[in-house]
Amino acid sequence: MLTDTTPDARAVLTDLYRRAGPVRCLAMALQMSEDYRAIAASGIRFHRPGATEAEVREELARIYLGRDLADRVFGPART
């Protein structure tokens, strides 16, 4: 639930989502997911400036999948 906006603004946003329909809402959700991935990758690069793209992908997997599953896929984290 949004807590940083007014009830009127929240009502407008809710109405926009309802009128968007399922296809548009799915497109927005997919775009938000891609935006999140890009922001997370940027954060990894900021905190690990020398990280290779493979290392960034591994760390993203740890964020998305959790450490246990990512460690099973990639081996234990090297950081």
Write up this protein.
By secondary structure, this protein is mostly helical. The chain has one domain (7-74). 78% of the residues lie in helices and 0% in strands. The chain has 3 helices and no strands. The chain has helices at 7-47, 53-65, 67-74. Helix 1 (7-47) crosses helix 2 and helix 2 packs across helix 3 (67-74). The longest helix is centred in the middle third of the chain and has 41 residues, at 7-47. The relative contact order is 0.07. The mean pLDDT is 90.
What is the H/E order?
HHH
Judged by helices, strands and strand pairing, the structural class is: mainly alpha
Largest sheet descriptor? none
- Spans of at least 5 consecutive residues with low confidence: none
Please tell me how large the radius of gyration is.
18 Å
Our measurement of the CA-to-CA distance between the termini, rounded to an integer number of angstroms, reads: 35 Å
Task: Name the features.
single chain, 79 residues, 78% helix, mainly alpha
Short structural summary:
The protein is mostly helical and 79 residues long. It has helices at residues 7-47, 53-65, 67-74. The radius of gyration is 18 Å and the shape is elongated.
Please specify the SSE layout and strand pairing.
Elements: H1 7-47, H2 53-65, H3 67-74
